[in-house]
Every structure is written in structure tokens, then in C-alpha cells.
Amino acid sequence: MKRNQLLSSLSRLTMTSDDEDGDNEGDPTSSFKNLNALEIAAIADAKRFLSQHIVQKIITAIWSGDIVFWDSLSVHSTKKVRFYNPRTADPFSRLRVPKYLKSWEVLFFCIFLALYYAVLIVRDESRITIPEVILFLWIAAFFYDELSEWLDAGSIFYATDIWNLFDMIMIAIGFTFAILRIIGIVQNKPDLNDLAFDILALEALFMIPRIFSILSLSPAWGTLIPCLKEMGKDFFKYMVLVVVVYCGFLTTFSLVGRNVFAFKSMAWILTKIFYGSAPIGFEIMNQIDPFFGPPLMIIFITLSSFLLMGSLTGMLSNSFSRVITHAKEEYLYVYSVYVLEASTSNRLTHFFPPFNLLALVLFRPWRLFFTADEKFRAGRIMLLKATHWPIVGIIKLYEMYRKPGALEDEFAGFKGPSRSSRRNGRHAIAQKRSASNVGRQTLSPRGRANGQSIEMREDDVDAPTAMEVQLTELNRKIDQLTAAIMAIQEKQASGNDSGSSSTGATPA
């Protein structure tokens, strides 16, 4: 009974609603129709909600594969939240675990980087080499995988992860390189070939950070990334004011000194001054105009070097402080988005890139002429098993030989209560209560009386607030109430048993 209630709660959090609404045109919530509660919380920046202990237990269980959405791989399989049972689950269902998806993603980008270096170091402009052909296939597989992810997650949730912006830029650079490279080879234009390789060189600006995006799982890096994101937003907002001021002074200086400096030359001089080369302005202010040049240049240097740059530095510092103050919530938000993004797909068969190109070539053309049925699904399942069995074998070996007890203590509550008799009910409840209290602050009666310090978790650095103390007291009362209810149930059960036994002993 308790297990069914927990599964029902997880379903409401992690599964989407199947209710259909015929008219969604005027519904402002229609964009969130296919999203579950956790995904909506990520889109709405509900960081405090996502940082709650029970929510993080669910997300971490999804990350590690203790909670799965697919436990079988057949034509009749449906997506449903459930606990993972290694004895009954299909081994190929482990391909959907976010932890393994992200591990393959890192390997995919490492091979991508190796192909990138192989193409640029050789740089054969006369013909397309074998590494280039493989690189083209890698870019195509990367694009198809991102397109599938965007269609599964939706544009709103897809845009939540900042790394998806890196992915789109990498794909755009890759396609630009491929198009220019092919045109340059076909039309024998060395200039286009040079331009293609120069554009491909830009790929490293985004690929190398993308490889190390796995560091977002670390609390230190997972906090810095939101800081940089917020600072970047404030920076671009502030640059609007800078551009307005810059354009005003550029227009004035260009018109006043048009007999001495061209517009392009004046624009470059003011740019140098803005970035700190103030002595250049003092040297040319009399050349611009003996009367208006000096006062205008002094005003511009003062604004750019002191007022604008000082205000920008202070604003960015405030942005950093605002985010770092809630470092734990920011990290858990990044971690939650990282996990939820890998578990949003509603497809039964998910092919890792570049194997997804095989599914695209073999099955997608037939969908244009025939409707999708069980035969298509069975064919995709067969192809998935034929191409991914080595990966599944490595996963099973890892799960077989990994150290036992690594996460069992923290997430033992997700294994579900074991079947026991009514006599052991109180013991089971006590175990569940203790499992739910793992990592939670506790306050002893002596500590409350004497104002002593409270036991804290390792990741907590602040003193407990009044609300936290009240929650701790409430948890203690809930424990007492649970024990009292169990005692009443045991008394009722014993009374029913004695009544039934006495009835059975009475002669007919």
C-alpha cells in the first residue's frame, strides 16, 4: 500500500497528463501541456522547489537509474514511472539512464574533437579526406540527435539548458564548413577552402567547453555557470547604454573632425579609448578641433574610463553576489536541468549518435509511404539491440562490479518497503522515517534548552533559521503521530483476530 502511494506521488511529479483539450489556442498554459511538474519547475526557475530534499532524492534516483520510465523493450512497452528491478527489467532499458547518456555524450564529443584536430592539422585543400567524411557524418549525427531532443523536450524546456546554445552554434559552424568545403572542391576555389577551414577553427571555442560541461555536476562548477549566465545577461543589458553613449560621441567627433579623421579611423580611435587607451585621446583632441576637441574628449574619457566601466564592474559584482548567495540552490537547479533534459524523451528506442543515422536511413524513408505500426517498432528494437549490445554489456559489467553501498544509504527509500507481516509494520515505518530523515537537520532537547549548535549536513554552511527549527519540531511530532497510529492499528488488528478466533470456537 505504501509503495503504491509513493509510486502515485512520483507519477504526479514525473509523468505528463493525458488530458486532451480541444481548444488550446487561447490557453496560455498550452505550451506546458506535454511537460511534467519537474520540467515546468525548471522552466519557471523554481530553484527553491527543486532544491527540496525529497525532490532531489527523486532527481538523483532518476540520474542513477533507481527510478526508470522504461523497464522493457517491446512493441507494447509504455512510458511509466517505476522502480528499477534488475531481475525483471530489460538490460537495454539501461540505455535510457541519464548517467549513461551523459557518459556517452562526453565520449562522443571527445571523438568529435579528435576528428576536428585530424582535419585541421592535415588541412588537405585539394580533396576531401577520410577524416573529413567521418567528421561530416559526426556533425550530421549530432544535428539529428539535437533535433530529436528538441522535438521531445519542446522548445521552452530545450532552451533552459545553456549548453544547448553551444550545441546549436557548433552545428551551425559544422554545416557552414561542410557547405563551403564542398563548394570549394567542386568549383576549385582555394579561397573558399581557406575560409572553410578558418570557420571550422572556430569550433574549438565551443567544443572544448562543451566536453567539460560534465563538470556542471560538481558543486563548485555548477555554481559558477549560473553566475556567468546572470553576469552575461546583465552585461548585454548594460552594453545597450554603452552603445548609445558611444554612438553619440562617435557622431559628434566624426562631424567635428571630418577634415582630419575619416569615420572609420575615428571609430577605431574611440574604441581604443573605451578599452583603456586614454592617452590616445589626449594626443589627438587638439587635432580634432582646437575649441571643441579637448572638452569633448575629456568628457568621453571620464565617462568611459570611470563612470561606465566602474558602474559595469559594480553591476557584475552584484550579479555574482546575488547568485553565489544561493549557491546551493543554483547548483541543484543546474543539476536538475541536466538530469531532466536526459529523461524527457517519449520514444521507446533512443539511438546514441552516430548510430541514430542508421535508424534515420533505414526507417525514416519508409514512414513517408507507410504508417507506423508494430513492425516499424519491432525493427527499430532489433536495430537498437544489434548496434548497442557492446554498450549495454559495459553498463552491466559496471553495475555488477561497482562498489556496493555507494548510494543505498542516501536513497534507500526509493527501493520500496519490503513485504512483511502486520507485526513488523512499526519496524518498517521506523525504517522509512529514518531513511527520509537522512541528511535532515536534527535538534536535540538539550540543544534546544541550552542553545547549543545543531548537527548540520556536510553541504550546509549557514546556521539553522527559525523556520528550519520549526520544521524539525514538526518532523518529530509526525514521527510520534505515526507511531501512535501504528499502535492503534495493531490493537485493532489484535482485537479482530481475537474476535474471529472466539467466533470460530463457538459451536454451530
From TrEMBL:
Polar residues bias (residue ranges): 433-444
Organism listed in the record: Fusarium oxysporum f. sp. lycopersici (strain 4287 / CBS 123668 / FGSC 9935 / NRRL 34936)
TM region positions: 104-122, 128-144, 165-186, 206-228, 235-256, 262-284, 296-316
Keywords: Membrane, Transmembrane, Transmembrane helix
InterPro entries: TRP_calcium_channel, YVC1_C
Biased composition (Basic residues): 420-430
Organism domain of life: Eukaryota
Protein name, entry field: Calcium channel YVC1-like C-terminal transmembrane domain-containing protein
Disordered as annotated region, ranges: 413-462
Claim: Membrane is one of the keywords in the record: yes
Domain Calcium channel YVC1-like C-terminal transmembrane residue range list: 109-399
